[in-house]
């Protein structure tokens, strides 16, 4: 009986190199897609969080029969001026559109957004003391209490190229009736999905 060595098993060097080359190609195509996905997910999450806060303010106004507001977080008492620093939803007991810690009731508070997300607004959601305000019937109002104040907030990433800017932008549109919605201008057949439109 002759000795038969066991057959060798495993990969040859060429097979290993081909496998590694294919893996490198797949990785190079997957990484940019994952980065785009992560950027979109971060922006969508921020927009949805602010949208939920606006809905909470409207719901509390309707439920409690009182004014409710969303304002940027400030240092100490009062409103901040930058939505990206976070926001506070509160029942505006004295109906002045400013958070007064000794008078008003907090509904929820949101911490600052990541530094790569910028938030701007128009109408009463802009300026040195921006706010989104609802009356007791859930209608959007301005700081004088007048009905029918349409507002738009724009959330965008500030760490992308100008060619990717529209893809990395979301708008929160608040109709004159107070109903908010989120839209994405890059995918849009919606011509009202911009900062200047009042609808």
Please, could you describe this protein's structure?
By secondary structure, the chain is of the alpha+beta class. The protein has a domain at 13-116 and 123-149: minor pseudopilin epsh fold (3-Layer(bab) Sandwich). The protein is 26% helix and 22% strand. The protein contains 1 helix and 9 strands. The strands form 2 sheets. The protein has a 5-stranded antiparallel sheet with strand order 3-2-1-5-6, with helices on one face. Strand 8 and strand 9 (180-183) form a beta hairpin. It is elongated. The model has no long low-confidence stretch (mean pLDDT 84).
Quickly count the helices.
1
Shape, principal axes of CA atoms: elongated
Uncertain stretches: none
Beta-strand percentage?
15-25%
Structural class: alpha+beta
Instruction: Report the CATH topology name of the domain at 13-116 and 123-149.
Output: minor pseudopilin epsh fold
Fraction of helical residues:
25-40%
Reported for the largest beta sheet, the result is: 5 strands, antiparallel
Specify the CATH class of the domain at 13-116 and 123-149: Alpha Beta
- Strand arrangement in the largest pleated sheet: 3-2-1-5-6
Helix and strand string, N-terminal first?
A: HEEEEEEEEE
Mean pLDDT figure: 84
Q: Architecture of the domain at 13-116 and 123-149, CATH level 2? A: 3-Layer(bab) Sandwich
Distance between the termini: 92 Å
Radius of gyration: 25 Å
Q: Kindly state the number of beta strands.
A: 9
């Amino acid at each position: 009986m002759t000795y038969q060595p066991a057959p060798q098993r495993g990969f040859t060097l060429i097979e290993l190199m081909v496998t590694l080359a294919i893996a490198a190609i797949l990785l190079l195509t997957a990484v940019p897609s994952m980065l785009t996905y992560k950027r979109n997910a971060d922006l969508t999450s921020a927009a949805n969080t602010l949208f939920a806060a606006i809905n909470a303010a409207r719901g509390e106004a309707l439920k409690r029969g009182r004014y409710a507001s969303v304002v940027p977080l400030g240092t100490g008492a009062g409103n901040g001026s930058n939505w990206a620093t976070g926001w506070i939803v509160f029942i505006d007991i004295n109906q002045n559109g400013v958070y007064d810690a000794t008078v008003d009731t907090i509904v929820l508070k949101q911490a600052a957004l990541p530094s790569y997300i910028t938030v701007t607004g128009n109408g009463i959601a802009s300026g040195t003391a921006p706010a989104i305000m609802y009356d007791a019937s859930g209608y959007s109002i301005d700081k004088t209490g007048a009905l029918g104040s349409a507002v738009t907030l724009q959330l965008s990433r500030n760490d992308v190229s100008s060619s990717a800017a529209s893809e990395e932008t979301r708008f929160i549109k608040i109709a004159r009736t107070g109903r908010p919605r989120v839209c994405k201008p890059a995918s849009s057949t919606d011509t009202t999905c911009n900062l200047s439109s009042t609808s």
